[in-house]
Amino acid sequence: MNATRGLIAEIYYGMAPESDSRQTRFQGYPGARCEGIINMRTLVSVLSIALSVYLVLMLLLYLFQSRMVYLSNLPGRALTASPNDIGLDYEDVSLATPDNESLHGWYIPATNPIGIVLFFHGNAGNISHRLDSIQVFQELNLDVLIIDYRGYGQSSGKTSEPGTYIDAQAAWDYLVKNRGISPDEIIIFGRSLGGAVASWLAARTTPGAVILESCFTSGPDMGARLYPFFPVRLITRLKYPVKEYVKRVSSPLLVVHSQQDEIIPFDMGQSIFAVAPEPKEMLVLTGDHNGGFLLNRKQYMATIEKFLQRYFAQTLLPQNVDTK
Fold first, then answer.
1. Does the structure show a pLDDT above 90 at 230?
2. Range of weakest confidence among 12-16, 144-148, 149-153
3. 125's torsion region: left (phi>0), alpha (psi -120 to 50) or beta?
4. What span, in angstroms and rounded, lies between the C-alpha atoms of 123 and 72?
5. What is the domain count for the chain?
6. What is the extent of the structural domain holding 234?
7. Is residue 102 part of a domain?
8. What H or E segment, with its residue span, contains residue 144?
């Protein structure tokens, strides 16, 4: 009997795994369980690392968003040109803000001005990189006041959203109070980030006209487009609620945007136009974010001229201009 049991045991435990499922369970299960545990630990480690990286990136977005938006050092703060380089006389202007910052700008007079453009530029560079636009407005018989925000060009201070609003108000006050220019002679113009600043000012004042070019609908909207995998709307500190400002603009408004804008989507320009009260017009351009107005220069100038003829203070137009 003992011999028989020994033989059975030898046969059972000596079987090849495939010969009996019990043998497979006996020998294979512990190893599979260990392998599953190792795989689970690996997965948890990978997920932990991914989550940590995600949270670090989100923290960086929150902490450094101002540096990512206000690109005053791109390509640099030094003024690399002046209106003299395109044959225009100009005056250096220094503006003091209520919070004791000093803003630098240029006042460029036209020969027979019909009004003045208060120019707010985009988030990169400085006033010396806007000579093409200054030339356009000069050809439209418009004086220009263009300023650098705090932290840009030769202006003092550190850039912030409230700071750009203070700077805009200081530029407006300079024209109205220091130079004695009537509000209905002023055209508030803003491109890109400058459009957000311009819309804030236009909602608080009553200029003769407003032009918003290549402008976004809000800071959170723009952030959500650029970083769709992060909860940008929860962490964005730069609000710039352009659509809300535009709803309160009472002056004639021209919205300009390119269908091929690779930075600020065209539908944002459409959204701004949609919420704006009358009177309003929209000019649709082609080309990229920075060069669309140059690519369509003839159409661009003709549209602005007709817009001003239609809505701008008629007494300011030269006698030889057909306003019909």
1. no
2. 12-16
3. left
4. 7
5. 1
6. 68-316
7. yes
8. strand 142-147
Of 133, 134, 142, residue with least CA distance to 294: 133
Q: Which residues are catalytic?
A: 192, 261, 289
> What whole-number distance in Å separates Cα of residue 255 and Cα of residue 273?
6
CA distance 34 to 158: 58
- Lowest mean pLDDT segment, chosen from 58-72, 155-169, 192-206, 287-301: 58-72
CA distance 299 to 288: 16
The pLDDT of 24-50, averaged and rounded, is 69
Tokens of 196: 């957000």
Q: How far apart are CA 163 and CA 101, in angstroms?
A: 10
Provide the mean pLDDT of the chain: 87
C-alpha angle with apex 201: 286 to 155, nearest 5 degrees?
90
Round the CA-based radius of gyration of the chain to a whole number and report it. 32
Sign (positive or negative) of CA dihedral 127, 129, 131, 136: negative
Residue 321 counted as domain residue: no
CB of 104 closer than 8 Å to CB of 155? yes
Domain membership of residue 48 (yes or no) is no
Selection from 244, 240, 238, 268 nearest residue 255 by Cα: 268
CATH code, domain carrying 202: 3.40.50.1820
269 within 8 A of 215, measured Cβ to Cβ: yes
Output DSSP code: residue 71: B
pLDDT of residue 66: 82
- Domain membership flag for residue 25: no
**Neighbouring C-beta atoms of residue 116, cutoff 10 Å:** 24
